[in-house]
Structure prediction request, 1477 residues.
Amino acid sequence: MSGSIPFYQKHHLHYDRGYRSKETESKLSQYQSSSRYTAGSSTSTTSRSRGLKVSSHSGLEASRLSPVPKRAKPTYLAVDKDNQIIGYVVPIFRGSQEYAAGLSDTEEARVRDTAAYMARRDLFTSGLEMERSELISRREAMRGSAERISLNKRIHEHEEHFKRMNEDSLMHTPEFVIKPRSHTVWEKQCVRLHCTVSGWPDPRVVWYKNNVAIDPLASPGKYKLESRYNVHSLEINRCDFDDTAQYRVSAMNSKGELSAFASVVVKRFKGEIEEGLPEPRRDSTEDGPVSEYGITFKTHIVDKFGVSFGREGETMSLGCTVIIYPALHRYQPEVQWYRDDVLLSASKWYHMHWSGDRATLTLTHLNKEDEGLYTLRVTTKSGYETYSAYVFVRDADAEIEGAPGAPLDVRCLDANKDYIIVTWKQPAVDGGNSILGYFVDRCEVGTNHWIQCNDTPVKFARFPVTGLVEGRSYIFRVRAVNKSGMSHPSRVSEPVAAMDPADRARMRGTSAPWTGQIIVTEEEPAEGVVPGRPLELQVTEATKNYVVLSWKPPAGKGLEGVMYYVEKCVSDTDSWQRVNTEIPVKSPRFALFDLAEGKSYSFRVRCCNSAGVGEPSDPTEATTVGDKLDIPSAPSKVIPTNNTDTSVVVSWEASRDAKELVGYYIEASMVGSNVWEPCNNKPVNGTRFFCHGLITGEKYVFRVRAVNAAGLSQFSPDSEPVEVKAAIGGGIPHASPAPPYGITVLECVRDSMVLGWKQPNFIGGADITGYFVDYREVIDGVPGRWHEANIRAVSERAYRVSDLKENKKYQFQVRAANMAGVGIPSLPSDTFLCEEWTIAVPGPPYDLQLREVRSDSLVLLWKPPVYQGRDPVNGFYIDIKEAEAPEEAWRGVNTKATEKTYIKIKNLKEAETYVFRVRAQNKAGVGKTSDVTEPVPALTKPGTKEIVVDVDDDGIVSLNFECCDVTQDSKFVWSKNYEEMTDSSRLTVETKGNKSKAVFSTLGEEDIGIYSCLVTHTDGASSSYTLSEEELKRLLVISHDHKFPIIPLKSELAVELLEKGRVRFWLQAEKISANGKVDYVFNDNVLSQGEKYKMNFDKNTGVIEMIMECLTPADEGTFTFQLTDGKATNQSSLVLIGDVFKELQKESEFQKKEWHRKQGPHFIEYLGYEVTPECCVVLKCKVGNMKKDTTALWYKDGREIKADNNLGFTEGVLKLEIAQISKKDSGVYEVVLKDDRGKDTSTLNLTDQGFKDLMNEVFSFIANSSTPLKITSTDQGIRLYTFVSYYNDLLQVTWHYKDSAIAFSDRIKSGVVGEQLWLQISEPTEKDMGKYAIEFSDGKGGLRRTVELSGQAFDDAFAEFQRLKAAAIAERNRARVAGGLPDVVTIQEGKALNLTCNISGDPVPEVTWLKNDREITSDDHCILKFESGKFASFTITGVNTSDSGKYSILVKNKYGTESADFTVSVFIPDEAGSKKK
Prediction:
C-alpha cells in the first residue's frame, strides 16, 4: 500500500527522504529476512513496483543515480481518442527485467565487446546504450543501498525481539506508524485518508469530521471505513464543498488514546466541471444550521444595479450592496460574477472588488462581447443569493458616416505551425448598406505592428491566416467594410502560438488530473518498424478558401517520431501530388490552401518515421471546393409581449433547417417612424429576448434575422404593434431552470440511444426553450470526458444520441434552458450499455404528465414508447398505487387496453397521495413499465375553476377558463384531445389577463372531442371540457336561439271557457320587459279593445289575455298574439276551425246554460253509483240550492219508484240502495228536482254496457273478498277451493293450470257450493302436480288466486285422498242387509213362514242365521238359503211354538259385518181366541 505515492503527496514538504528511507528499509528488510516472515513474497513485489515508480516519476533521483547525462524521457500519460489525458501509464520493459535477472557484470562486458553488439549500435541510435548504462548504474546503487538497509533491519529486529520477551513491554499505548495526510482535491472526486496504527491490545479506531464521529450508515455511499492489518482508511466518495473540514482519527486501547489530524480542501474545477450557477448541496433543511459554524447566515442583496446601457470604448461599473447577518469578524463570503451563466475571472477587461459589504464589477473597456446577462452570486455556508440584470453595449460612433459596426467575438479555432483559422461574428449594424466583407489583421505578440492578412474582403466569417512564423504568438482583429467605409476594429483575440498541435500539447506539461487509476502497459522498443496506414481520414471542414483534414494514427507499435505526408488528387485522375513536400506534419490534422474553387479533390495521408514512409491511407470521397454553408432562412412568427413599462418580450419561431446557427439579431421600430434600431448587438441563441430601453406608451414593431458564418438572413415579417406598458406582475426577473431528472433509455440500437427525462421542478419563471444532452463513455467504471450530443436545443423531453459505440457503456446528463440561460446539468444518469434491443414487446412509455388534479380524479398523459417492439403498439395499461404503499400494491386502472395516450382516473380518495405508471402492449405482450410519476395528492386546490361554455348574443360558442394564479410569463395552452392545437381555422384563442377564451368559428361535428386548457408557470392549473354529440346538439340549439332571439314563453296561446260561457284566449311569457308590446290578430286583422274583445297585458307576470263574451260562426279562424320586446320577437297562434271550433262553441253555449241551470235546484254531482264492501249497489247524486218545497222524484224505466226504506236524503245527497243486484235490476234510472224556480234532471243508464260496468265493479269487490286458494282431499280426489263474501250468479270464474285455462272433463270438474268455489280433481296423478289458479273476471285486469300443488303439499293431499278413498270403498263394499225383514213376525202355529232379505257386499258376504244368539243351520224344518249372492231366505215349513224367539241374520265380509234382528211369535188359534174373549 505504501509502495505507490499519490501525486498529491509527493510534492508535500513533509513527505521527506527520511520517511521514504524508513519505509524502504522496512520493506527491504522483510524481503531479505528468513522464511518465518510470511509477507516476504508480496513485499518483494511491492519493492519492484516502487522501483518502477521512481524510474518514471522522480526525475531528480534518476539524475542523481545515473552518471550518464539524462536523455529526453518519454511521457507516460494515458490519453483518450481526443488526446485528453485520463491517467498514468507505467511501462514494463522486458529487456530490462531480463538483464536484471540473468546477466552478471562480466557477461555484460563480454557481450558489449562483441561484433554483434557493435553492429547493433551502428544500426540503431545510441539511445538504447545510454538507457542500459543508466539501468546498470541504478541497479548497482540500489543493490548497495538494499544491503545496508537489510543489515540495519536485522539489527533493529534483533533488538525488538528481546523487547517483546519482556512482559512489561507487551502492552503499550497506540502509536501512529503512518499518520493521515492532508489533501486538496477537485469537487466530485474521491479522497482516501489512511493511517497505520500499532499498539497492544489492538486499538479501536474512530474517525471524526470537525470533532463529530462519522457514521457510514447515516450517509449511505458517502463514507467507507476499512481496517485491515492495522491499516485504517476513510474513503470519501464524490467530494463537495461540505466535505471541506478537519478530519481526526482516534486510536484507543486500555493503555491510552492518541489522535492524528488531516485536512481536506475541496475545490471547484472552474475550467471544465461546472461553469454555470450550481445549486449548493445541503444536508439539513433550508434554513438549518451550518455544521462548521453552528449558525445560519442570511444574505440580502440591496442597492442593486439595473438594466444598463453602455457604448463601445466606455467604462462601466456594476455594483450591489450585500448584507450578511449575522456579521462575523473576518468572515468572507465567496463573491462571484457571471455573464450568461459563465464565470468571469479578473483580467484587463474585468476588475472585481469586494469591500466587505459591496461587490463591484468594472468593465474597463466595453465591447459588444461584454453584452449579456450579468449575475452576482454571493455564497455562504448557508447557501447563496443571486441577482441578475442585462447589460447592453451599443456601437461606438463610426468614424465615417454609414460605416458598419465592428465585428465581435474574434476567436482562433485551429492553430497550426503555418496557419491559424480565425472566426468572428457579424455585427448587427450594417450602417444602412450591405456589408461587402471583412478584413483580418494580425499582430505579433510583443509588438504594435498590425498587418492586414487579406487583400480583398471575405464574406465568410471564417478565414485561414497563413504566412506565420513557427513558434511565435499572434493576436487578431477583424474589421467590416461596406461601400461607405471601414468599421472600427473588433476587440483583439486571445494570443495563440503558431506551432504544431503536438508540440503545443508537450509544452503544456505532462501533469494530468488524478483519476485514481494507474494503467500499466507493456511496450517493447520498435525501432526500425515502418508505421502503418493512418485511419479514419475525413474532411472535417471545407470552404472555398481551404479544406481541413483529420485522421487517427495507425494502430500498432513504433509510433514515436511518426509524422505525416498529405497528398491530393483531382477527381477523375490518378495523379497524386504531395502537398507538404518539405516538412511532414506531426499532428493528425492538416489544412490545405490554394485549391481551385469548384474543382473536386480526393485526399490521402502517409505515415513516416526514421525507418521510412508507410502505405497511404484510404482516400476520402471527392470533395468540391466551395462554401457549403448557406445563409439561414428568415425567422417567422415574431410575437411581442408586454413586460415592463420600458421593455417588451419578443419571441419568434426559429429559422428552418439553419446550419451552424450563431444566433439572432432583433430590431425595433417606433410605429410610423420607419427607423429601425438594434435591440441587441450580440447574437442571442434562444428564440425569446427582452428588449429594454423603450419609451413608455409608444407602440413598436419588431423584426428578427438569423446569423451564421455564411452571413445574415433576411428579416422576418414585422410583428404586430405593441404598446410599451407594464404587464401583469410588472416584469419579474427570471433565472435559469433547475436540472432535469429521471433520465431513462427509451430505445437502444447498435450506435444510438434514445433518452427520456423529466421536466425540472423549477423552470426559472420562464418557459423552457429546450434541452441540451451530454454524454460520456464509461470504461471499467471510470467515466471519461463529457461530450455534447446536440448543439441546438431540443424542445421535446426525448432525444436520440447518435454516433455511439456498440457494447460500450455511457452516462448522460441533461441541462434545461430558458430565456435566462442554460441551467446547471442534471446528475449523471445510471450507466447504460449501448446494445440493440431485440425484445418483442414494446419499450417504456415516457413523459408522464398529470393534469386536472381534483379531490376524486385526475388526468394522466403520456407519450408512446419510442421502441415499438416486434409489432406496433396497440394499447396501454395504467397502474396506480398509494405513494407509501409497497411495490406489491400496484393495481390496474383499466382492465381493457386503451389506444389513447391519456386517461381520466376517477374514484380517487380525497387527500390520498398516489403515483402512476404506464405500460404499452403489442401483439407480443405487455412491455416495460414507464418511470413512476411524482407523488400527487388527490386534492382540489383552493380557487380551482373549470372551463365554462358560453354562447353570446350573436350565437358564438366559446370555452372560457379563468385562473387566479397566473404570472407574467403564464400562457394558456389549449388542446383538443390533449394535443396542442395549431390550426386556428376552427378555434380562435383570445387571452386577456387571467382569462382565456377559445372561440369556435363554425361549430360542427368535426369539433367533437375533449378540450383542455393548461396554464403554464402555475401549480398545474388546468381543466377540461368534453364536447359530446349530445352537448353539440344542445349548443347548436342555444346558438340558434341567441342568433335569432325569441321571447321565451312559459305557455303557448291557449283557450279556456269562463263563467257564463265566456271565452278566454291567453298565453304567458317567461320574461318580458316594460317595453314589450303585443298585437292581437284574427285572420290577419289586428283586433282592438271593444265590447266584444277585452284585452289585458300584465308585464309583471307576463300573462297576456283576450276575453270574448261568446262565440259566433263568424269567429271561426286563426287567433294570433304577436310579441315584440326590443330585438326579440315571438308569436303564438291558435287555429279554431272545423270540429274544433264547433266543439268549443258548443261547450261555450253549454256553460252558458249551466249557469242558468244553477240558478234553481240543480245537481252538483249527477246520478252515479257505488258498490259497498257488502256488494250492495247504492245509486246517489249530490244536489244543491234546495228549498223545503223542492221535490225529488226517482224513476226506473219511466216508472216512479215509491218511497220505501231503500230511499234516503242526507246532507244534500240522494241515495237508492239495491241489495243483491241481478239482471232484473238493469234499467234507466232518473231523478227529477223541481220547485217554483225550475227543475233539473239526472239520468243513469244501467242497461247493456252500463249494467255490465256496474257488475264488473261488483265482481271486483267479490274477487277482492276471496280467500287464498286452499287444498283439501275427498274420497274421489283432491279439491281446491276458496270462499267469497258474496256470490253472484253472473260472476265469471276461470280455473288455470300452469297458466293455461283448464278444459273440464269427468275427471276435473268445478262448481259452487254456497260461497265456496271449488275445483275437483278426481283420481289425481303426478301429472296433476303444478301451479293452479282461479281468476275472477271484473272487466279490467281481474284478480287471480294461486296455489302450488306440488312437493309436500301434493304428497300430503294425495295421501289423504288415498285414505279417504279406501274408507269409501270399504264403506261401499262392506256386507249389508239391505232390507225385507220385519221387526216382529206373528204367525199361527202350523203355518209356513218365509222371510226374504237383500244382501249386498263385495266380496259376497258370508250369511249366518242366529236364534236367540245361537247359530242355526238349515234343515228340513228350517230352510236357510242364500241365492245369487244377493238374496237370503228364511223358511220354516210348519211353525210351532218352539219356533218362537229372536232371530238374527249376520252377514260378513272383509270390509265389515252387519246384522238384522226380527222376532217370531207363534200362537195357537184356540189360545188366541180365548184370549180375545
